[in-house]
Amino acid sequence: MLRSALALLSSLQVGLRIRESIERSFRQAAVIAVALVILIIAALFGLFSVYQLLVTHYTPAAAAGIIAAALFLLSMLALATLPLFAPRPKRQAPSMAVAAGEGVNMIDQGVGKAMQQVGPITMLAIAFVAGILASRRR
Question: How is residue 81 annotated by DSSP?
């Protein structure tokens, strides 16, 4: 009985945490949406003020063309930085041939290290004895 009551209490706490997490996410999304709307309004106001500044020196068509060219160049710069934010491709597992080659390389390094520590004659004797013992088991 106590176990089932504790399980119910635990599931209620998990549900409460999930609900709080969802509510927090909705609040964050609302704040981000308001910030984006304000940012868009600020950008439009800036574009309008730059257009008004350019109209005093150029014709309206030329001023609009200058703003369009500047926005085009800005968008190309933004697109040029896009590969910097792309997720890195994960390294795939090495193929069987590469893995086998690495294994043989590790064995070769180990034998070389053992040969330096023990000596070639001793290694040859150990290999000979191991070969004889392996052939007797069959």
Answer: T
Instruction: Classify residue 119 as left (phi > 0), alpha (psi -120 to 50) or beta.
Output: left
- Surface-to-core class of residue 66, CB atoms within 10 Å of its CB (0-12 exposed, 13-18 middle, 19+ buried): middle
pLDDT digits (tens, 9 = 90+) for 76-114: 988 888 788 777 777 766 566 666 677 777 777 777 777
Residue identified by tokens 């290290």 is 113
Residue 93 phi, psi dihedral angles, 5° rounding: -65, 140
Global confidence as pTM: 0.46
Q: SS3 sequence, 53-66?
A: HHHHHCCHHHHHHH
Query: How many CB atoms lie under 10 A from the CB of residue 87?
Result: 5
Q: Select from 63, 62, 45, 46 the least CA-distant residue to 54.
A: 63
Q: What is the DSSP secondary structure assignment for residue 138, as one 8-state letter?
A: -
Helix, strand, coil shares, percent, the chain, to 5: 90, 0, 10
